[in-house]
């Protein structure tokens, strides 16, 4: 068996693996990537971020058509099946794969399709269709991502029981669905299914939705999910899941029993590290298959690095890409080798949510003298024009210095709007100030203008 030699071998072609490979190649290193599936892109492109967000966009367009009175001149509200909407949404996957395949070719990066595992600390054995390949490298990057956590007491082989990966193979539109787990993925799919007219029951093992968010944003999400027909049950845990030919029955530890046509379990994720021979390399994963790393993304073995979902928090595609770039920078002393800690949240519920910085509960606990500025979208001209009046922009700032401390947004385009606040928060000294929004002319009408409105609202509370 021939051994091929590289400077860097990257395991995984999701955002973290791609970024690490590209940045290392730009530094003049000979790079190979290993991908367990038959196409590049990882779970982000094929099972997670891209298909679910494309699906959400399609559902949002359906909601607009069915609720906007202007379209009644065209016809009555229409019903769309889940498979039909998903097929339309999946068109973007092929475009993403094509683009990313071209990136590897352009940067002369070798791709090996097959499952890779350590045969020693510097060598990866790849089980390709043509037979095993041995890849030896000075540096190795583990960016194998994660998969949905699947408890052994739930029969995921049953045709009506799904995880967040297999739900994308749903071949019918259920009338009712139970979603267990009210984290980011659970809340996003609750929005998607209720937007298709499915009756949704969202079961949350915790006391509130998305507890890491600002309380006001969480309350708004809860209200709008309920307003759209989602039944939310907090502080509930399942005892057992009973499956029948006609549906699923969930038995809760509280004694409640619920029946639905389909069941979606999305309560946690596990790192894709099993079967990789980590023990051969001298690395140990935790109980969820995740790897511990230092601030430079080194594992316990000096020449082996890890990034992306496989290391846990924050498990976001945006952060994974920056982590991958940072890995390559740290390996070769390039610019940008830092630990990724300031990451905006982007939650694609309907309406969407995004935030960066501290929330009110954190600032209160830290006894920071802060004030709040708000802009409600229903009062802005652009939102009135687009008929997207649900939502608000909330700015938290220091009462004395006017320094921006947090930006929280709920509503249409929230994940885009938040970046304006993020840019100002990154400035040093007096440049990071509420006064920027007071002294800057914004295009009118725009959603960005909400910053000026919120700044005026907050400024009036202080002076």
SSE layout and pairing:
Layout: E1 3-11, H1 15-26, E2 31-35, H2 42-46, H3 49-67, H4 82-89, H5 91-106, E3 110-113, E4 115-120, E5 123-128, E6 131-142, E7 146-148, E8 161-163, E9 176-180, H6 184-195, E10 199-203, H7 215-227, E11 231-233, E12 238-243, E13 248-252, E14 257-260, E15 262-265, E16 269-271, H8 278-281, E17 304-306, H9 317-332, E18 345-347, E19 353-357, H10 360-365, E20 370-376, H11 381-386, E21 391-398, E22 404-411, H12 414-425, H13 435-438, H14 450-462
Parallel strand pairs: 1-2, 1-6, 2-3, 6-17, 8-15, 9-10, 9-15, 10-11
Antiparallel strand pairs: 4-5, 5-6, 7-16, 12-13, 13-14, 18-19, 19-22, 20-21, 21-22
How is the biggest beta sheet arranged?
A: 7 strands, mixed
Q: Spans with pLDDT under 50 lasting ≥5 residues?
A: none
Specify the CATH architecture of the largest domain. Answer: 3-Layer(bba) Sandwich
What sort of overall outline do the alpha carbons produce when their principal axes are compared? globular
Q: What is the first-to-last residue Cα distance?
A: 75 Å
CATH topology of the largest domain: FAD/NAD(P)-binding domain
Strand content: 25-35%
Number of strands: 22
Number of helical elements: 14
Structure classification: alpha/beta
Rg (C-alpha, Å): 24 Å
Write the CATH homologous superfamily of the largest domain: FAD/NAD(P)-binding domain
Q: What is the residue-averaged pLDDT?
A: 94
Q: What is the CATH class designation of the largest domain?
A: Alpha Beta
Helix content: 25-40%
Q: Count up the domains.
A: 3
């Amino acid at each position: 068996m021939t051994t091929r030699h590289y400077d860097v071998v990257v395991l995984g072609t999701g955002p973290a693996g791609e970024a690490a490979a590209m940045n290392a190649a730009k530094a003049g290193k000979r790079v190979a990537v290993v991908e367990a599936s038959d196409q590049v892109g990882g779970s982000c492109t094929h099972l997670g971020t891209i298909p679910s967000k494309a699906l959400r966009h399609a559902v949002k367009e359906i909601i607009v058509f069915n609720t906007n009175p202007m379209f009644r001149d065209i016809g009555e509200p229409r019903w769309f099946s889940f498979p039909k909407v998903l097929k339309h949404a999946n068109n973007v996957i092929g475009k993403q794969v094509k683009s990313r395949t071209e990136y590897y070719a352009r940067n002369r990066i070798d791709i090996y399709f097959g499952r890779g595992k350590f045969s020693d600390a510097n060598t990866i054995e790849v089980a390709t269709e043509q037979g095993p390949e041995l890849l030896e490298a000075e540096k190795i990057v583990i960016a194998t991502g994660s998969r949905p956590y699947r408890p052994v007491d739930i029969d995921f082989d049953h045709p009506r029981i799904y995880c967040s990966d297999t739900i994308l193979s749903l071949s019918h539109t259920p009338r009712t669905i139970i979603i267990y787990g009210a984290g980011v993925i659970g809340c996003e799919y609750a929005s998607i299914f209720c937007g298709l007219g499915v009756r949704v029951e969202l079961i949350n093992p915790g006391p509130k939705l998305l507890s890491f968010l600002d309380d006001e944003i969480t309350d708004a999400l809860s209200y709008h999910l309920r307003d759209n027909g989602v039944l939310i049950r907090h502080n509930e845990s399942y005892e057992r899941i009973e499956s029948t030919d006609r549906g699923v029955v969930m038995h809760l530890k509280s004694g409640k029993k619920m029946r639905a046509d389909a069941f979606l379990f999305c309560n946690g994720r596990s790192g894709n590290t099993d079967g990789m021979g980590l023990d051969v390399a001298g690395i140990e994963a935790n109980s969820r298959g995740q790897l511990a790393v230092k601030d430079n993304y080194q594992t316990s073995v000096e020449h082996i690095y890890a990034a992306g979902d496989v290391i846990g928090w924050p498990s976001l595609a945006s952060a994974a890409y920056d982590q991958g770039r940072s890995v390559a920078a740290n390996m070769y002393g390039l610019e940008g080798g830092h630990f990724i800690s300031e990451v905006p949240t982007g939650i694609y519920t309907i309406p969407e949510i995004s935030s960066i910085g501290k929330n009110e509960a954190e600032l209160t606990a830290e006894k920071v003298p802060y004030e709040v500025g708000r802009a409600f979208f229903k009062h802005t001209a652009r939102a009135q024009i687009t008929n997207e009046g649900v939502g608000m922009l909330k700015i938290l700032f220091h009462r004395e210095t006017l320094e921006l401390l947090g930006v929280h947004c709920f509503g249409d385009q929230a994940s885009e709007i938040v970046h304006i606040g993020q840019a100002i928060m990154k400035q040093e000294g007096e440049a990071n100030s509420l006064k920027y929004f007071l002294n800057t002319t914004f295009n009118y009408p725009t959603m960005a203008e909400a910053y000026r409105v919120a700044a005026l609202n907050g400024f009036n509370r202080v002076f």
